[in-house]
Amino acid sequence: MDAVRLIVTSRRALAGSADPPDVMAEVWQAQALAQAIGSRLAVSGPPELRGEALGLTELAGRGCGVLDRPDIDAEDLRAAQLTELGDARQALTYLGGLLGEVGIALVGLASAADDESTYWQCMEAIDAADESRDRVLEMLRKLADRDEALPA
Fold it and tell me: How far apart are alpha carbons 143 and 152 in whole angstroms?
């Protein structure tokens, strides 16, 4: 499945999640998807994005690592369903939106957390999502710079 379709699916699933465990599972799914997209860009994306894409892969991996891994069947893991990136700019634009929504969802969870462990998991995941989104925005900036440099 292409990146944009997977991102849209993740955004809908995150928006439709009400229970904290479901939200956490969707946050984990989104970070895993960001990691997969970063990895794909690092290997086969535009050359000027490869360094930032590696950084995205590492940061999103950290975002998964700070959360308890949800009990998700392999066929339901969206990151594993990624078969193509499609247009890098479009995929990054959608991914930036998803990561912003992840941060908002995590703030809501952290605010309502009953225990310190959940609170700190959310805080670390917020940081990872924010840094991942920064990498995405930097890659979009690099694509814009590249387009400006092309002769008309």
Answer: 16
